[in-house]
Amino acid sequence: MAETIISTDNLVKEYGELKAVNQLNLAIKKGEVYGLLGPNGAGKTTTILMLLGLTEPTSGTAQIKGFDATRDSIAIKRFTGYLPDQVGFYSQRTGRENLVYTAGLNGISAVEAAKKAVEVVELVGLTNVIDNKVKTYSKGMRQRLGLADVLIKEPEIIILDEPTIGIDPTGINEFLTLIRGLSKEQGITIMLSSHLLNQVQKICDRVGIFVKGSLLAEGSIEELAAELLAQKEIDLSVKVKDLSDQVIKKISALDEVIKVEKQENLLDEIYQYYFTGGEIDARL
Ligand SMILES: Nc1ncnc2c1ncn2[C@@H]1O[C@H](COP(=O)(O)OP(=O)(O)OP(=O)(O)O)[C@@H](O)[C@H]1O
Q1: Same domain, yes or no, for 19 and 135?
Q2: Which domain holds residue 243?
Q3: How many Å lie between the centroid of ligand 1 and the Cα of residue 20?
Q4: Are residues 139 and 90 in the same domain?
Q5: Ligand 1 centroid vs 85 CA: distance in angstroms?
Q6: What whole-number distance in Å separates Cα of residue 5 and Cα of residue 7?
Q7: Range with the lowest mean pLDDT among 237-241, 249-253, 279-283?
Q8: What's the gap between Cα 140 and its chain centre?
């Protein structure tokens, strides 16, 4: 069994009356891709900031590789890369210049940084544009450059906060594949936050469902689905405009759908679908 590399113990963060993070206990294993899944405001960013020692817990502790996040944050930064949701680059400088500059800030010599920059841009697929100014990069390319910026430090752990926001669908798939590859091919432990289940389920070994500062459930997507949905019929009501009989027929034909029932009133039409779980939303 792999060792625990990221952990929190009854971690709490309060902002006045608000409990942004409430008695959080996490244990993330070395080499895992772990997804913190929750809606906006659930406390994901606050948790990440506490893990990195960038904000102090109200109570409880956060540790990475046995180092306390509050007391030993400098040690943690040496082996942990952090990709925030908005990565700041000098837009008038090229990708290469930005990488070499931040590598210098991390104590890497100019010669070494120049060499490593070539390696990491190859890994993230930016070789062709590395000498273009960052202002010409798309959001997806900026995220890749952000990842290159993190990789240049050769981290053992990478923490990403909502890494796919603003990227187009093709870019999202490529970026997620890249992240998964880093974990599986290089053994890097990945923790990422997201509010999008379909993205988290694509790449994460385990997922923690985080709502209003608390972890509601945790496990692989298969375990969570089994636990939450097994043998349960879900009654789903959807308000729609101009839904044709043909679409209703198609929905009825899905394996998961037990019954489709149309209800009408004067103001709107409500369609109810009964299904046993699974990927109905993705397939609609
Ligand atoms: N510095 C702060 N001062 C006061 N309240 C804060 C502060 N930072 C976060 N909060 C509040 O704490 C709660 C959790 O915020 P957090 O940013 O951690 O959520 P999140 O899950 O990352 O959501 P999002 O994706 O929207 O950032 C929110 O209600 C937020 O308004």
Answers
A1: yes
A2: 232-283
A3: 6
A4: yes
A5: 13
A6: 7
A7: 279-283
A8: 15
